[in-house]
Design a protein that fits this description.
The protein is mostly helical. It is about 70% helix and about 0% strand. The protein has a two-stranded antiparallel ribbon.
């Protein structure tokens, strides 16, 4: 087994295909960095403009409401709420102009608390959430609790908010945001799928896969060595691309800190905090579990077809089944939490933001490993049947 893995590693590690996969991961991670290189940071201006647009909208509504010379109670209540919101928005705009982090956090917290109070009073439709790239516009009570919790944390720990749209974000935030917010998990998994298809069909190009499946040497060991080869090469390529990305961004904008908060909820009611460092560890851990499942599935498929396109199509099809529209459909809804595809959307799994039913993270890990074991057993059974023919 060790000799086979060493052979496969030597054959695949320094191949041009491996270099292409590494460059693909690197470019995916660095796209935002390169697209903003040489430009002046304008994220503050974007946020300022977004709040300014809301302020203008409120002023226009106030003008209309004030034309009513004899307002009823409903109109008076709308006037009062618009005036309160206008004061909050104006304070936020002025704080961004002053560029004082503590002051910005305080006025954002004040507005978050106001919005929470209005939502608790069943007036969520009257609040105005400011829309700008990377800002979640969730009008639910939980969404308002998250905002309050987040700005309370920043204020308490004297941290500066680093939005997803910030062009000069330090390396810890940049790398985490790239994986959690910018890169679609399906895209990342498809890159892995390409490498899987290549590893499990390369022997067909060399004309010796049929031979390996029929000779006395244990073909199950051959498949297992290919699974091991994939897990020893491709995830390391993503890790290496991440390290290079971290160093380059850190050299340019600073390295930042891993103790930056992401807010989430386990039960949909109480808000909790997850630090960037832990979020990234959870992301990588579940990615590895998903890759084990896909690698074993690829091994099983390769026993029926040695064609690169066939293997890639089947693996790609399984990845596409992880779309929310599929997972929330009536046929799968009842058993979704027991399916491996329910755990493919890594950012949503880590932050517990799925719109479909999932188990806890430990149980989700067991689901992925359990399905991997079942598929591996099927592969062993297929090989045994082939040898008996």
């Amino acid at each position: 087994m060790n000799a086979q893995i060493k052979f496969d590693l030597k054959k695949n590690l320094w191949s041009s295909f491996t270099v292409v996969i590494f460059l693909t991961f690197f470019l995916l991670l660095m796209t935002n960095f390169f697209s903003n290189l040489g430009t002046l940071p304008n994220y503050t201006a974007e946020i300022h403009d977004a709040y300014d647009d809301v302020s203008t909208d409120i002023q226009n509504e106030l003008k209309v409401l004030r034309k009513d010379k004899h307002p009823d109670k409903h109109t008076q209540a709308m006037l009062a709420r618009d005036q309160d919101q206008y004061l909050h928005i104006s304070a936020i705009i002025m704080a961004y102009v002053g560029e004082q982090p503590a002051e910005i956090n305080q006025v954002l917290l004040d507005y978050a608390q106001y919005n929470l109070k209005e939502t608790q009073a069943v007036r969520a439709k009257t609040i105005r959430l400011v829309n700008y790239p990377g800002k979640e516009t969730d009008y639910s009570l939980l969404g308002r609790k998250k905002d309050v919790f987040f700005y309370q944390y920043l204020l308490k720990h004297r941290l500066t908010e680093i939005p997803v749209i910030q062009e000069n974000a330090p390396a810890t935030n940049y790398l985490s945001y790239a994986l959690i917010y910018r890169l679609a998990p399906i895209l990342v998994l498809f890159v892995f799928a390409i490498q899987l298809a290549q590893i499990f069909t390369v022997e067909q190009q060399e004309g010796n896969l049929d031979f390996l499946n029929t000779v006395p040497a244990n073909p199950l060991k051959t498949l297992t060595s290919k699974i091991g080869t994939f897990l020893l090469i491709t995830p390391i390529l993503l890790l290496l691309a991440g390290v290079v990305c971290f160093v380059i961004v850190g050299w340019k904008y600073g390295f930042g800190m891993w103790q930056y908060p992401l807010v989430y909820s386990l039960d949909g009611k109480q808000v909790e905090v997850l630090m960037l460092g832990k979020a990234l560890i959870l992301y990588v851990s579940f990615l590895l579990l998903v890759l084990i499942f896909l690698a074993v599935l690829s091994a099983l498929i390769s026993l029926f077809s040695h064609n690169f396109g066939v293997v890639l199509t089947v693996i790609g099809g399984v990845i596409l089944l992880s779309e929310p529209a599929v997972l929330t459909s009536g046929t799968l809804k009842a058993v979704t939490k027991f399916l491996p595809i329910a755990y493919f959307d890594l950012p949503k799994i880590v932050l517990h933001q799925t719109t479909w039913s999932i188990a806890s993270l430990p149980v989700g890990a067991v689901v992925l490993l359990g399905w991997s074991a079942v598929l591996y057993g099927l592969a062993a059974l297929v090989i045994r049947k082939k040898q008996m023919l």
